[in-house]
Amino acid sequence: HVVPVRWNCEVEVFGRVIAPGHLIHADKHGFLVIPPEDEARLLEAARFMDANECNTLIAAARSCHGLAPRAAMRHLDRAWEAFGATTRKQFGQRGEW
User: In the prediction, which pLDDT does 19 show?
Assistant: First the structure.
């Protein structure tokens, strides 16, 4: 059974229609299509999330050296909460954070 290859056309992946030119984010959790109206803000959002992670989670992980395991986990939990709070404040919605 030969399936023809087509270019520059819409495809459906797991029930989601993807058109030529759509931006897609994919990782181990799955994929999403960036809505065209959000494309202009994508770089700003990525820079914000990178800075937020550096200022909260990565900073907390780097400062755990020498802490007892439970104290380190509490420290990381507080950083995770700060990461989520900062993200919700910026974007005003819930996400995986």
Answer: 93
